[in-house]
């Protein structure tokens, strides 16, 4: 298997809009750049606005940060919820919010 040179991010709540990004991209930054539509306010892990659900590809996201745990229960994390501004993706993901 060749290493991915781009990853695909699908914004399910935005009509399934799909964009490409470099590996290890920040999910909120890609959303901002490509008009993906994930809600946000602070961009810094404080407000909780960017809560979203990784419906597919949770294995392609990095480790949950302490800042995210202030907004997400263990159950939510187990269901695939993340804070977009704190999440980096290294493979294809589909996200809703
Ligand atoms: S935008 Fe405020 S926590 Fe992510």
TrEMBL record:
Sequence ranges assigned to domain 2Fe-2S ferredoxin-type in this UniProt record: 7-97
A Pfam family: Fer2
Domain of life: Bacteria
CDD domains in the record: fer2
Protein name stated in the entry: 2Fe-2S iron-sulfur cluster binding domain-containing protein
Originating organism: Pandoraea commovens
């Amino acid at each position: 298997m060749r290493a991915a040179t781009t990853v695909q991010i699908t914004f399910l709540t935005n009509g399934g809009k799909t964009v490409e990004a470099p590996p290890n991209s920040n999910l909120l930054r890609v959303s901002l750049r490509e008009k993906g539509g994930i809600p946000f306010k602070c961009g810094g892990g404080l407000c909780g606005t960017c809560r979203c659900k990784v419906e597919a590809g949770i294995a392609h996201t990095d480790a949950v940060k302490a800042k995210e745990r202030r907004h997400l229960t263990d159950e939510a994390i187990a269901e695939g919820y993340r804070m977009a501004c704190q999440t980096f993706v290294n493979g294809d993901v589909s996200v809703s919010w």
